[in-house]
Design a protein that fits this description.
Number of helices: 7
CATH class: Mainly Alpha
CATH superfamily: Cytochrome c-like domain
Largest sheet: 3 strands, mixed
CATH topology: Cytochrome Bc1 Complex, Chain D, domain 2
Number of domains: 1
Length: about 160
């Protein structure tokens, strides 16, 4: 199998104008951040690009069903990740930037909540407890992780069967 590389998109570091402005956007909190930042790689509906950027639609919700999955998702948006992963049977090698210094706890919780509702199920297939700013803040207080640490966290989820294939 051929492994594709994806790079960090400069647009990933856009700054939020204010939580009130994007929170009131049609589609709920997190939509503007997702469209401005995440969709550059993961696409507007979270479909990703096979072999280049992982699909979030109908996957993020499944990952967020467990405490370890939630911790992984928060770590991912806080600190980023590097290394090889497999999504939908296709290997991807690359780097996702972290946003700990760019976004508030509330903004990260909102974008995670938006991501878990992407897909055909639209949240109907398994309710997920909403991510909160307090939950992100609690994890932010832990010692920061490297991108390799977050990758190791993902590998543990894969090994335990808690990560969708």
């Amino acid at each position: 199998m051929q492994k594709m590389r994806f790079g960090v998109v400069a647009g990933c570091f856009l700054v939020l104008s204010s939580s009130a402005a994007w929170g009131a956007s049609a589609g709920g909190p997190g939509l503007k951040t997702f469209n401005d930042v995440c969709s550059l790689c993961h696409q507007t509906q979270g479909a990703g690009l096979a072999g280049q950027f992982p699909r979030l639609a109908d996957r993020a919700r499944d990952i967020a069903q467990t405490p370890d999955g939630r911790k992984y998702m928060i770590s991912l948006v806080l600190y980023g990740m590097s290394g090889s992963i497999t999504v939908d049977g296709t290997p991807i090698v690359g780097v996702m930037p972290g946003f700990a210094t760019t976004y508030s706890n509330g903004a990260l919780a909102d974008v995670l909540n938006y991501a878990v509702r992407l897909g055909a199920g639209g949240g109907a297939r398994g309710k997920v407890m909403s991510f909160t700013a307090a939950e992100v803040n609690a994890q932010r207080k832990d010692p920061p992780l490297s991108t390799a640490d977050v990758h190791a966290m993902r590998q543990q989820l894969e090994a335990s069967g808690a990560l969708p294939k």
